[in-house]
Amino acid sequence: MLNLSLFSIFISFSAFAGFRVEGEWIKTRKNEYRYVTNYEVKRVKRPLNNFPWIEEDCHDTGNRFASWSKTLTYELTYNGTLNFNLLGFFDVDLGKEKSKSIEFTFQRWVTPTLGIRARHVLHEEFEIWDGVTEVEFRHGNDVVVGEKSYPFRLNKMNYGISVERENVEICDDKLP
Fold first, then answer.
1. What pTM value is reported for the model?
2. C-beta atoms surrounding 137 within 10 Å
3. What is the DSSP string of 122-142?
4. Beta partners for 14?
5. How many Cβ atoms from other residues are within 10 Å of residue 175's Cβ?
6. What's the domain count of the chain?
7. Side-chain-facing half-sphere of 65: CA atoms under 13 Å
8. For the chain, what is the total number of helices (H) and then of strands (E)?
9. Distances (CA, A) of 60 to 51, 111, 113
10. Does position 174 have pLDDT exceeding 70, yes or no?
11. Range of 56's domain?
């Protein structure tokens, strides 16, 4: 079972604040060891520049005025080849390839308000996880951090899109 504590400080050559995940101790003949991961989460929210903003006019009303959608597709391919060469005269290649694609679609609708001219801008929101995994060794009561560390960066975790509305004008006198 993993223990998770918020905002702990792991003291080694450099202090690292954020999340800390400690694995269970694993026994060997001479000592015990476990993997300890320290990471921080940065939240990013930025406008999607490739998507146009949508502007509603004073007379627009309803529950669905316009929408955006973004699709992310991942493809995973496995292949293998086995080659036989018999005395330089006869070549045989055996192989197989298999692929699978996974698609995620995110969609947001714009809801207009009668009497307001507004601009709607699509934003993407995600997290970046930066951290390091180290091995701790326990000899009796002493805990020592191993020499090797494994830094990592996971980008676009917990991805989503949102819409921000900017009211440009209140236009009561322009209603039909």
1. 0.57
2. 16
3. EEEEEEEEEEEEEEEEEETTE
4. none
5. 9
6. 1
7. 19
8. 0, 9
9. 21, 9, 7
10. no
11. 3-174
Amino acid 42 reads K
pLDDT at 133 exceeding the cut of 80: yes
Burial class of 138 by CB neighbour count within 10 A (0 to 12, 13 to 18, 19+): middle
Cα–Cα dist 79/94, whole Å: 11
Contacts of 86 (CB under 8 A, 6+ apart): 92
Residue 151 token pair? 């830094």
- Gap between the Cα atoms of 120 and 125, Å rounded: 16
Query: CA-CA distance, 112 to 61, in Å (whole number)?
Result: 5
Which token pair is 102? 């996974």
For residues 76-100, average pLDDT: 72
Distance CA 85, CA 92 (A): 7
- Measured CA to CA, the distance from residue 147 to residue 88 in angstroms comes to 49
Which residue, 161, 147, 143, is CA-closest to 22?
143
